[in-house]
Specification:
With 305 residues, the protein is of the alpha/beta class. The chain has 2 domains: 171 residues, Rossmann fold (3-Layer(aba) Sandwich), CATH 3.40.50.620; 101 residues, Pantoate-beta-alanine ligase, C-terminal domain (Pantoate--beta-alanine Ligase, Chain: A,domain 2), CATH 3.30.1300.10. Helix content is 33%, strand content 21%. The protein is built from 9 helices and 11 strands. The strands form 2 sheets. It has a 7-stranded mixed sheet with strand order 1-4-3-2-5-6-11, with helices on both faces. Strands 7-8-9-10 form a 4-stranded antiparallel sheet, covered by helices on one side. Strand 9 and strand 10 form a beta hairpin. Helix 8 runs antiparallel to helix 9.
Length: 305
């Protein structure tokens, strides 16, 4: 793996493009095709910054997409109030030496309106987050597929925090032969353990205290991993029971590629995942684990086609 330590100086602003033609022209100027893409919905934070930095270490050029994708929001979800901070986002990209920022509107990405043909997430898209948000992952995969075609990267970077999304993007890339590397980057957390998310801005001070139960539960489960699946679930559940203001949607210990609950005899890699509503905000978090003797937390699993 080649590491690139030189990036454009912080004063160099990225080229901001908004149309397909502008993107194609900008993409043609990036030499040798060594391009990494970080896809975002905006409201960039330190988690996004880490994705950009990881991409910059491995690629000569970095493209960031900022697109609030309407296809992945269901009725009653927070599309209308999702934070929009494009000017600040571009400044962050400038400080990190990003080459191109693509900020299309929905009519650019979907020129004929809602697409009649979409990518289906299949059974893996109907569990966990998919059960709570029907059709969500079809919308995610459809836009990711389109953006891969439009930006033509050699690698795309995603955070481990959205573990089910990461798994489904990897499956789409492999099953449909997209020919791009999908690189996982470990979850970035605040000093208090809260996983970074653009939705954290919705949390009040008291909400935030309650939200910390999610990461505490994951740590408790990881600490019990050497004792087996039941111990992991029991330890994590106990933490959440003690925080009544965190309204838990699910707490599961599942196989990392099938998302099926692991049985008590299981030993090996697993994913401990949690979703809960705190105040008006729905939060998710997860921790990859090694279950069994010598078990404990695992890091994100790097790049994969």
């Amino acid at each position: 793996m080649t590491l690139f330590t030189h990036r454009p100086p912080a004063a160099t602003r990225p080229l901001v493009v908004r149309t397909r033609a502008e993107l194609a022209e900008a993409r043609a100027t990036l030499d040798d095709g060594d391009v990494a893409v970080v896809m975002t919905m905006g409201a960039l934070h330190e988690g996004h910054r880490e994705l950009i930095r990881q991409a910059a270490q491995r690629a000569r050029h970095v493209v960031v997409t900022i697109f609030l994708n309407p296809l992945q929001f269901g009725p009653g979800e927070d599309l209308s109030r999702y934070p929009r901070t494009v000017d600040d986002d571009v400044e962050l990209c400038a400080r990190e030496g990003v080459d191109v920022v693509f900020t299309p509107t929905p009519d650019v990405v979907y020129p004929d309106g809602d697409p009649g043909v979409r990518v289906s997430a299949g059974p893996l898209g109907d569990v966990l987050e998919g059960r709570s948000r029907p059709g969500h992952f079809d919308g995610v995969l459809t836009v990711v597929g389109k953006l891969i075609h439009l930006t033509r990267p050699h690698a795309v970077y995603y955070g481990q925090k959205d573990a089910q999304q990461l798994l489904l993007i990897r499956r789409m890339v492999r099953d449909l032969d997209f020919g791009v590397e999908v690189v996982a980057v470990p979850t970035v957390r605040e000093d208090d353990g809260l996983a970074l998310s653009s939705r954290n801005v919705y949390l009040t001070a008291s909400d935030r205290e309650s939200a910390l139960a999610l990461s505490r539960a994951l740590r408790a489960g990881a600490d019990a991993a050497s004792e087996g699946p039941s111990a992991v679930r029991r330890a994590a559940r106990q933490v959440l029971v003690e925080e009544p203001l965190a309204m838990v949607d699910y707490l599961v210990l599942v196989h990392p590629t099938t998302l099926e609950d692991v049985p008590e005899w299981y030993r090996g890699e697993a994913l401990l995942a949690v979703a809960a509503r705190v105040g008006t905000t729905r939060l998710i978090d997860n921790q990859p684990l090694l279950v069994g003797p010598g078990g404990g937390p695992l890091a994100a699993s790097g790049g994969q086609r």
